[in-house]
């Protein structure tokens, strides 16, 4: 006759198990397991424990063995189970992944769950699970463009260096223009937001003119110097530079991060810079406006104030923009740049290698 291994409890284990065996708020299975171990500690065998608690002999043996192996903590949760055998084999999963990444449907530019389900002979829900497991999103597309600037690395390192290690006794300003901001008025009033219905606006609109915002974002404290102008020419850019000169401390050197717009490199602008040596221009590489952090501020302005706004004339549009800037400057929050130049260059190198491979194919 087989004898079950003996169970010995120290005072602390016995106290915990006795509390669990009498508990009314714990799950019934936890109470039952505590009682199994306490009866086993009294020297009772599996069959006796099963008869007294009304459970199977296998269950009594299982929780005695679990306690001897893992202690009190082993009684709290069930052991992990392997789960049911998957109905879709590895070959079928690999085929879905291969078709998604390397093929296109005959009558569309990308796969949907239903078109892939028809082609692979499985359900659309299974296709969705496979795509989620492998991080595939064929319904989405993201835009990109690699810069062809021959001095990309030098310009990148200079600008990222200003973000990560700004010079002492100097201000770093990200400057740009948001041109052609339209004062749009809807042809009919919007319906109010209410339960069960989102806010609405008409699909068509009336144009009431355009304005250009000149903005300079201080990377140190997040404040913005902004001025609205009617046009975007070198004359307005020179006026904005003079405005920055008046609005910033005279004893500070100013490092301005700009794009390659012709207004920034105009002959008269170059002459003005020679007369104001505290201004230093740093141009982003071509097709790399993402390096200029003021673009992040423009995104917030568009998303929060302009996209759903209704403006009946240019002054109303200008008031809305200037009011947004004033409110932003009351409690500014700087954008923190974290990417190193070496990491960006490595990513660009990988992208160029992949792009070259695709073009070769």
List the helices and strands and how they pair.
Elements: H1 11-22, H2 28-41, H3 46-53, H4 57-70, H5 90-102, H6 113-120, H7 124-133, H8 152-164, E1 170-186, E2 205-218, E3 224-229, H9 234-247, E4 253-258, H10 267-275, E5 279-283, H11 294-306, H12 314-330, H13 341-360
Helix pairs in contact: 1-2, 2-3, 2-4, 3-4, 6-7
Written description of the protein model:
This protein is an alpha/beta fold and 361 residues long. The chain is built from 13 helices and five strands. Strands 3-2-1-4-5 form a five-stranded mixed β-sheet. The chain is elongated. The relative contact order is 0.09. The model has no long low-confidence stretch (mean pLDDT 92).
